[in-house]
Every structure is written in structure tokens, then in C-alpha cells.
Give the backbone structure.
Amino acid sequence: MRRIERYISSIFLAAAIIAPAVVVAEAKAQEASVQVRVYDRDHHDYHNWDNREDHAYRGYLVEQHRSYRAYDRQHYKVQKHYWNWRHNHPDHD
């Protein structure tokens, strides 16, 4: 009877030690998909910066005859102009 209690206690102890490592490993897997959100002050809304938004941004740059520059490196007036343009040019799915 004493052996069974030790065996069961060992299993619980091992599970208690391993459980936090499993939780940390799962948390790191979720962090891999970081979502970038950009706030539009004039329209008081957020936009997810994904492939669709990047495609629209590049279309805006072509239409405005501007060379490519990363959105977060643009002057705030250009960013403001982009969001005004973007609200007038929604995606058509």
C-alpha cells in the first residue's frame, strides 16, 4: 500500500513540475501571430495592418505618384492623407 501511495505521489509531483512548462510553450506559440493595429485620429477608428491594408497603401502611393516608404516612417500629414483616401476607397469583396 505504501508503494502505491509513493507512486501516485510521484506522478502528481511530476505533473505539477511539467504543467507550467507546457503552459509557457503554448503561450509562445500564440505570440508568433502579432497583430499590428493603427489608430486613425480623424475618423476615430483602428485599422488592422495586414496584407490587404499594405496592398491598399501601395495603391495609394502609386496613385499619388509617391515612392514607397514604410507607413510608420511617413510624415504624419501623409499618414493623415492616406486614411482620408482609404475611407473613400474601401475594399470591395
Observations:
- The CA atoms of residues 21 and 83 lie 44 Å apart.
- The chain has a mean pLDDT of 84.
- The chain has three helices and two strands.
- The beta strands are 37-40, 45-48.
